[in-house]
Amino acid sequence: EIDLVIQDVSMRFNTREGTVTAVDGVSFEIKRGEFVSIIGPSGCGKSTVFNILGGLVRGYDGSVVVGGERISGPHASIGMVFQEESTFPWRTVIDNVAFPLEVKGVPKAERYVIARKFIDMVGLTGFEQRYPSELSGGMRQRVAIARTLVFEPKILLMDEPFAALDEQTRVLLGDKVLKIQQDLRQTTLLITHNITEAVQLSDRVLIMTFRPGKVKRIVDINLPRPRQ
Ligand code: ADP
Ligand code: ADP
């Protein structure tokens, strides 16, 4: 059961210095419920792959198939967590986290109950009525993670979600995200440069590398790891 297929994808950007090949013929698949990480050096094209999968980039070659459907823009079953915090500054913590439920038309009382569960999960109970400007960067990132998890996306894409967090929070939050991912059997792609994090959380790690001539390739490592 393959959930996400990226087939021979290339992306070139035209810049003043000329054409930059950000991604060059990358292919991989993720099975339903699988947790896959991509690691690789800065500039190898990880974020470009992430943005292509999220439907945020057009003009690439190759194809991206999500749940059997070729995508050409943002897909409703995909939830994304970005490296840079992306909270709504004019909304309190609880109204940030409840936002996707509000869009779905979930009544206020009900969406607050659900939002509180996720706020607790990311360790921000007691901060529900604060505004993002009253929180640290790491706390804002946790709000953004809770806001993505709250609508239980079938496919979860995360680009360096824990980069702004201290080590302790990173491990704690990683464990919680993994627990939810396993409970919901979410198909998950994590982009990280933290190899420990990739190995701890993933079923499989894809290593994106540069080869001589700047062609990028993916090396696939399976982690035979018992799961609880
Ligand atoms: P990574 O996430 O692995 O650090 P990126 O996907 O951000 O890599 O970038 C891959 C390459 O593509 C880099 O050389 C980067 O400078 C270039 N690149 C990415 N986005 C753009 C863009 N919008 N315009 C021009 N070049 C870009
Ligand atoms: P950053 O990495 O941006 O500093 P953190 O999320 O690690 O952000 O939090 C930084 C500080 O914010 C903590 O040292 C603590 O003082 C405060 N803080 C974070 N989470 C909580 C919490 N759940 N309860 C109370 N204070 C917190």
Automatic annotation (TrEMBL):
One of its GO terms (molecular function) is ATP binding. It comes from the Bacteria. The keyword ATP-binding applies. Residues 4-228 form the ABC transporter domain. Keywords: ATP-binding, Nucleotide-binding, Transport. The keyword Nucleotide-binding applies. Belongs to the ABC transporter superfamily. This is ABC transporter ATP-binding protein.
